[in-house]
Design brief:
three-stranded parallel sheet
């Protein structure tokens, strides 16, 4: 996971298949030393990474759920990493489907734009 532009600048040229970017929001599953980026900070980090490593897939991480995943996807990440919203749900499969629908809708909007 890359937390700020300096970490992105220090990535090796080879051997990195994708990046986790975050923490986007506070998370109950992990104590984050770095403060949450929020959507605006995530957008800037995505721009920074894309300027230096075009085509490198980026995934947002931390505090993401079905309520905020659409907003997170709208900043330009390729996906989201989610723990609590799925695994704390009574029906894990239904929670995963709900999140997938949000992500798929956000990706469809991006393609249509």
């Amino acid at each position: 996971t890359v937390h700020h532009p300096l970490e992105a600048d220090r990535l090796p040229e080879r051997g990195v298949d994708y990046l986790g970017l975050g923490p986007v929001f506070a998370s109950a599953s992990k104590d984050n030393v770095d403060p949450p980026l929020g959507p605006a900070g995530l957008r800037e980090l995505v721009r920074h990474v894309r300027a230096r490593r075009p085509g490198l897939p980026c995934c947002a991480i931390a505090g993401i759920d079905h309520d905020n995943a659409g907003e997170v996807m709208a900043v330009g990440v390729d996906g989201v990493a989610v723990i609590g919203d799925i695994f704390m749900a009574e029906d894990v499969a239904a929670a995963a489907r709900r999140l997938l629908a949000v992500v798929d809708t956000a990706l469809a909007r991006r393609r249509a734009a």
